[in-house]
């Protein structure tokens, strides 16, 4: 579903590579957790995948399509929730969802069904006619996820989706992600919450200083030691 | 006091991004070349306009000198600066006092309301100096060079310049602070502020016209002509009727180096001091109450039933229509943008309307329609309308901030599967519609006052729209090339962005070339239809050419803008 090869990126004001020759694959029907300490390059990688940043070198393919050449086709296959859900705060929640549905060309039946379903699930029905400005962080996060799911994307990309969510919303989030993958679609998300990654992810990748230092299923990362927690593995790898 | 100064210093650093400049200098010296290049480009680009302005001011000086009143150009500079500050400073003041992002940081700190308010006042004042300097200094320099006053004139000029924007800002503050106290938490506080600004502007302008009317009535008791041209300082006294203390500032310049000049300056400074004390007294009482009542969030929690949801979610629009609606809604719901964009457009028809409504005698209004009838220039009236509309179009910010307005939300435009060319086309249509709405009152009032025959009037509007396409497309192109997306307050999109200056410059050139072409074709004694064909061909070429450029670079530019 997602294939990242030889991806590198440096920022203009820094000689240090934010991402250094990153290679990664996310399979269909899989939840992939992207872990790493602060400043490791998780958000930079995600931003390159969704087209917010340009890579210095390397390729990113979604369903075999290169995001640098088949830009619009790739965008249609992705649903993205950023780490800080800055949305059009002067639109109402419903106006925003309609806008997203229009630009992703979601047909009227699917639009109605999905909007109703997710608004109810995330308890946003009572707020959807209010301007986004009046929403709490968690409500914005849930609205951003709803908008990302409207067109039922093949690849859902989420940057730190659990930050600021209450336990009920976090649980719903996880349920939605699992349901999404059960339909044969993929989820690629970054997180600091190792417990979530441990319970939810089919595979995880750990990035440090712009380099992928480990990637695989939890069992593969444990290397046979079933008592080893993800937290231990993470700390060992990132501090060494 | 130390705390106060530290607050003002930090506030200026944050607002003007001085620390960021230093950071850029230390980390990426190339970034510093950009403002230098912009400054050079501006000097080079505006040289002809500055030259023409100086020529015009010099001509005014000579006219004044011929009747023994050359100082009246100083009066124009002083009054113009006061008016500019009042009109454009008002919204900045409201924005600075009540909508700055850092207020949520400042309010919990152990600072008094007056200290917080002062830091914001100084911040707004600093930006107003930048606004009036291009208006004030050319006139002062022309007068200084031609009249050869004493050296103290230059010192007085600096002192008057520093004090000039203070007074209108204090007046605005005195009106704003108590009124903002009454904004309700449940209302849209920004919309309330914009409405408030318009009310204050109308009150202040009406007051000025009332002053002027009294002055005129006084003058007409004797002889107006004698009062204007034969009395010492007659012209200046008449002009200062709009705001009498402006005469003190002018006299402080005109009589610089004399005791009288010093006295007039002190009088002007005393007025500022009195207004300052009044504003701070009001601030102490009302500032935080107004500020905090507006910070309360509004959420109606109106539940939506299934039927409503089906109705609201059922409409499907094309991507282009969806983008246009986004632009439209987002613009109109930002009162700051509406105010900033519309006020320049409304001020001219407002003054025209007030002149007509408040003038005591109809005879004082020149019979423009009769003059035009006599000159028999209806044939070229559409060209004149188009020229003026294109010039005005360059002053509106809708197109030249179309990309910048997205700010940090530009990520949405980058991730949605809509081609950048389509997004830009929606922005273009939005800019055109908004500009037409903004110019409409001027068109209508001009048509009514000049009694332009309907056919010529409509032809003028059609030609204007064609010309505006090119003007707005050039503005959009400028913004696409150098968007400003890192603003943290909607007001900064315009206040900390030079795109409008570049757009105005390009609009002047586009209009100038069109005017030159029309004059040239007329001087060749070609038929009117041929003149129109030439001008239409020029405007079409411009519109199509710019559209093609936008289409060609859209995707590349969108990809290059990293957020």
What does this structure look like?
- The complex is a heterodimer of chains A (240) and B (563).
- By secondary structure, chain A is of the alpha/beta class.
- Chain A has a single domain (2-239), classed as 3-Layer(aba) Sandwich (Rossmann fold), CATH 3.40.50.
- Chain A contains nine helices and ten strands.
- Chain A has a six-stranded mixed sheet, with helices on both faces. Chain A has a four-stranded antiparallel sheet with strand order 2-1-4-5, with helices on one face.
- In chain A, strand 7 (155-159), helix 6 (167-182) and strand 8 form a beta-alpha-beta unit.
- In chain A, helix 3 (93-103) runs parallel beside helix 5 (137-149) and helix 4 packs antiparallel against helix 5 (137-149).
- Chain A is globular and about 50 Å long.
- The two termini of chain B are 40 Å apart.
- Chain B contains 24 helices and no strands.
- The mean pLDDT of chain B is 82.
- With 563 residues, chain B is an all-alpha fold.
- Chain B folds into two domains: 2-9 and 51-295, no CATH class; 319-560, no CATH class.
- The chains are: A alpha/beta (240), B mainly alpha (563).
- Chains A and B meet through helix 2, helix 3 and helix 4 of A and helix 14, helix 15, helix 19 and helix 24 of B.
């Amino acid at each position: 579903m997602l294939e990242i090869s030889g991806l590198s990126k440096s920022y203009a004001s820094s000689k240090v590579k934010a991402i250094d020759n990153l290679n990664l694959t996310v399979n269909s029907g899989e939840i992939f957790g992207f872990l790493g300490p602060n400043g490791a390059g998780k958000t930079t990688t995600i931003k390159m995948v969704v087209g917010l940043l340009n890579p210095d070198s390397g390729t990113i393919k979604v369903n075999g399509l290169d995001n640098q050449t088949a830009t619009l086709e790739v965008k249609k296959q992705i649903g993205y929730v950023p780490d800080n859900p800055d949305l059009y705060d002067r639109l109402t929640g419903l106006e925003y969802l309609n806008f997203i549905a229009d630009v992703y060309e979601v047909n009227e039946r699917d639009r109605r069904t999905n909007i109703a379903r997710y608004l109810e699930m995330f308890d946003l029905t009572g707020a959807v006619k209010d301007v986004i400005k009046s929403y709490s962080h968690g409500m914005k996060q849930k609205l951003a996820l709803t908008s990302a799911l409207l067109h039922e994307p093949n690849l859902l990309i989420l940057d730190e989706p659990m930050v600021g969510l209450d336990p009920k919303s976090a649980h719903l989030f996880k349920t939605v992600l699992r349901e999404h993958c059960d339909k044969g679609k993929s989820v690629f998300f970054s997180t600091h919450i190792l417990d979530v990654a441990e319970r939810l992810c089919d595979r995880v990748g750990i990035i440090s200083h712009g380099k992928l230092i480990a990637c695989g299923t939890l069992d593969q990362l444990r290397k046979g030691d079933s008592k080893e927690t993800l937290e231990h593995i993470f700390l060992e790898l990132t501090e060494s | 006091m130390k705390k106060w100064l530290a607050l003002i210093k930090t506030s200026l650093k944050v607002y003007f991004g001085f620390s960021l400049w230093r950071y850029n200098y230390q980390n990426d010296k190339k970034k510093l070349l950009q403002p230098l290049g912009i400054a050079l480009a501006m000097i080079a680009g505006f040289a002809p306009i500055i030259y023409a302005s100086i020529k015009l001011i010099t001509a005014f000086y000579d006219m004044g000198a011929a009747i023994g009143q050359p100082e009246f150009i100083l009066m124009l500079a002083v009054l113009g600066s006061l008016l500019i500050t009042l009109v454009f400073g008002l919204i900045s003041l409201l924005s600075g006092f009540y909508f700055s992002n850092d207020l949520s940081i400042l309010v919990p700190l152990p600072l008094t309301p007056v200290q917080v308010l002062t830091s914001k006042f100084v911040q707004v004042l600093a930006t107003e100096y930048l606004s009036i300097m291009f208006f004030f200094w050319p006139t002062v320099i022309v007068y200084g060079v031609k009249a050869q006053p004493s050296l103290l004139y230059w010192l007085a000029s600096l002192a008057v310049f520093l004090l000039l924007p203070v007074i209108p800002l204090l007046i605005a503050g005195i009106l704003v602070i108590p009124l903002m106290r009454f904004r309700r938490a449940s209302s849209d506080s920004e919309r309330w502020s914009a409405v408030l600004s318009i009310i204050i502007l109308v009150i202040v302008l009406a007051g000025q016209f009332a002053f002027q009317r009294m002055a005129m009535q006084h003058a007409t008791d004797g002889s107006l002509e004698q009062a204007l041209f034969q009395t010492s300082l007659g012209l200046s006294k008449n002009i200062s009727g709009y705001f009498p203390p402006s005469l003190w500032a002018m006299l402080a310049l005109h009589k610089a180096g004399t005791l009288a000049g010093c006295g007039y300056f002190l009088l002007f400074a005393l007025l500022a001091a009195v207004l300052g004390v009044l504003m701070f007294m009001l601030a102490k009482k009302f500032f935080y109450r107004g500020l905090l009542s507006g910070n309360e969030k509004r959420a109606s929690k109106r539940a939506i039933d299934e039927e409503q949801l089906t109705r609201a979610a059922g409409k499907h629009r094309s991507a282009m229509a969806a983008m246009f609606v986004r632009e439209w809604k987002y613009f109109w719901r930002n009162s700051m943008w509406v105010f900033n964009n519309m006020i320049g457009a409304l001020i001219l028809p407002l003054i025209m309307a007030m002149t007509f409504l408040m003038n005591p005698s109809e005879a004082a209004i020149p019979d423009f329609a009769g003059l035009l009838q006599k000159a028999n220039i209806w044939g070229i009236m559409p060209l004149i309308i188009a020229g003026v509309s294109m010039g005005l179009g360059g002053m509106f910010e809708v197109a030249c901030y179309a990309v910048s307005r997205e700010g940090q939300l530009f990520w949405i435009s980058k991730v949605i599967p809509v081609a950048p060319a389509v997004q830009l086309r929606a922005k273009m249509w939005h800019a055109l519609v908004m500009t037409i709405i903004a110019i409409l009152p001027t068109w209508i009032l001009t048509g009514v006052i000049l009694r332009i025959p309907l056919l010529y009037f409509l032809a003028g509007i059609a030609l204007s729209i064609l010309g505006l396409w090119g003007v707005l497309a050039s503005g959009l192109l400028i913004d696409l090339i150098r968007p400003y997306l890192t603003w943290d307050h909607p007001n900064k999109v315009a206040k900390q962005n030079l795109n409008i200056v570049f757009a105005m410059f390009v609009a002047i050139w586009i209009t100038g070339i069109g005017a030159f072409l029309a004059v040239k074709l007329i001087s060749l004694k070609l038929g009117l239809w041929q003149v129109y064909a030439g001008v239409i061909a020029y405007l079409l070429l411009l519109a199509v050419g710019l559209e093609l450029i936008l289409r060609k670079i859209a995707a590349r530019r969108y990809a290059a803008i990293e957020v």
